[in-house]
Amino acid sequence: MEEARWYVVHTYSGYENKVKANIEKAIENRHLEDQILEVRVPIQEVEELRTKKTKTGEEQVWKSVQKKMFPGYVLLYMVMNNDTWYVVRNTRGVTGFVGPGSQPMPLTETEMFNLGIQAANMEADVETRFAVGDTVKVISGAWKDTIAKATAINPAKMTVTIEVEMFGREQPVVLNFTEVRKI
To answer: Which architecture, in CATH terms, is 126-182?
Structure first.
């Protein structure tokens, strides 16, 4: 059996929650619970400044609201095969998978990390990836091509701390796992 990956589906704007509910119902009806494992509509908590009318005039108030991070998109953690593709693609409100042409393209490890999604095996694999004292090479960002020793590992945040020389002193720099490679 193939490995489950994260895919992105494009929907009509404003139909994200309806599409999620429709896909979940199709999963239940067709018994695809072992192939389509999760359906997400990413939301974030934001503070908005609202004007509130009072008896004495108007008052500015900060209100916490939930907003969709990606209007018009739904994330799916699924095994891609003909059955799952057909069910998702033919769900009311879905306009298609994100990818070149009609080919669904799974999210990369970096994209998943930036969305706050951890690969199922990623956190368990942390100890084998990096250890304090390992020599690592930075492969992207401002410190690209820097070679340094890992001084701290944070598996929960998926970060590694290295020491780099700045202004004649060793300074700690925290990087994502996706920005460094063990050498």
So the answer is: Roll (2.30)
β strands within the chain, DSSP E: 5-11, 36-40, 43-54, 57-68, 73-78, 94-97, 135-138, 147-154, 159-166, 169-176, 180-182
Which amino acid is it at 106?
A: P
Q: Which residues pair with 170 in a beta bridge?
A: 165
Q: Which fold has domain 5-107?
A: Alpha-Beta Plaits (3.30.70)
Of 15-19, 118-122, 153-157, minimum mean pLDDT range: 118-122
Q: Which residues contact 39 (CB under 8 A, 6 or more apart)?
A: 20, 23, 24, 27, 74, 75, 76, 77
Q: What is the C-alpha separation between 9 and 4, in angstroms, rounded?
A: 15
The residue assigned the tokens 């300074």 is: 171
Give the phi and the psi of residue 17 in degrees, each rounded to 5: -70, -35
**Residue that is written with structure tokens 């998702």 in the block:** 88
Given a cut of 50, whether residue 181 has pLDDT beyond it is yes
pTM of the model: 0.60
